[in-house]
Amino acid sequence: MQINFIFAIVTLIVSVILHEISHGYAAYFLGDPTAKYQGRLSLNPLKHIDMFGSIIFPAISYLIGGVIFGWAKPVPYNPYNLKGGKWGEAVVAVAGPSANIFLALVFSIYVRFAGVGAFSVSAVTLASYIVLVNIYLAIFNLIPIPPLDGSRILGALFPLQFRNFVHKIEGYSFIILIFFVVFLAGFIQPLVSFLFHLFTGLAL
Predict the structure, then answer these.
(1) Tally of domains in the chain
(2) Per the residue annotation, which of 9, 11, 12, 20 is the catalytic one?
(3) Catalytic (active site) residue 89
(4) At what angle do helices 118-141 and 86-113 cross, to 10 degrees?
(5) Cα dihedral 81/84/86/89 (nearest 10)
(6) Domain range for residue 179?
(7) pTM
(8) pLDDT, tens digit, for every residue of 29-45?
């Protein structure tokens, strides 16, 4: 799927920003105003862009021929302020991937029902890419390794000792994340391809 680099970067940035804002709003609705007080519930990209994760790493992944990938600055929240006990943190965690799945579903509806004119073909290609990026983001973030959302969700299902262990190794989260992206991200490709076809009716 050939996509202009600028469009690819914009798609990624918008998707990861909405992902992070969803975390912030989920925390806010559960009683924690940290993200609001720090101005992180804003759609202003300057408040969310991480220079390496949102610009440099995506450019590298684009140049080596893979699907463009990256992240924004994590939205801060205080788990001790959240309602719902250990489940509150899980709800905040699942909010981000849920936002990406929602975006993927919205644009997949357009892909399925768009016309076949010349303009529509180009528009369908762009919409399909938005679907693909958001499926990648959702599935990747649900992997249960820190600092990804999956580790927070899994933590709600395990004893306190597991959550404490996750918090301890988060100091190495950047190394863990880069290792996974470089060496293991291909393992999620079959699931991404399946969901892309399920959503859009197109082969990846």
Answers:
(1) 1
(2) 20
(3) no
(4) 160
(5) -60
(6) 5-200
(7) 0.87
(8) 999 999 999 999 998 98
